[in-house]
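Chapter review: from sequence to fold.
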Amino acid sequence: MAEKRKLDRSENEKGLIRAMFSDNEVLQRGLRQHFFQLPLSSDEETAVRGLSDDQIEILRREMLPSIADNRPVGMSSDVWTGLSASDGVDATYPRILVRENLITYFEQRFRALKTGANQDGDLLMSTMVQRPFVGKERLDLYVDICTYLTIMATTELHLNTLWMLGNQDIKTDDEIMQSLQKDSSE
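The token string follows.
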């Protein structure tokens, strides 16, 4: 008999996500502030600085996915997924630069989560959209604006995903069966 495919995370990972995000809007806001490089309240700072290395690794895997051998068939994706080489080099090249900036940016933010400090030379969101734009090379401007927008969208998407996972009602197998039986009898 073939082994059943698992479409979600390990129990350990789910437990860590629940420990992080269950009824913890302060952490969610603090992480958003951290990734957007905005000031954190003292409560947000405490919540963000309290993350363990394992919890930071879950965030990293969520926001910077990579192809792994243990992923179920059909569930493989990474930060390069979605690029289309069929658009040609001129259209694809700027998108590659955006993804490269995105990876660099998030790697720097994860390092800052672990060390508690930024480093000189780190990418800054504020400079990506700093005006004036006049005189800036078109490609540089395009890459900076797209990187900025992608950072915002990626951060919001993945923090909301983790928030939903952390706040799901946990049902036992018996509760699920009772619910299914109730639904089928109606």
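Two observations follow directly from the output. The radius of gyration is 20 Å. The chain has a mean pLDDT of 87.
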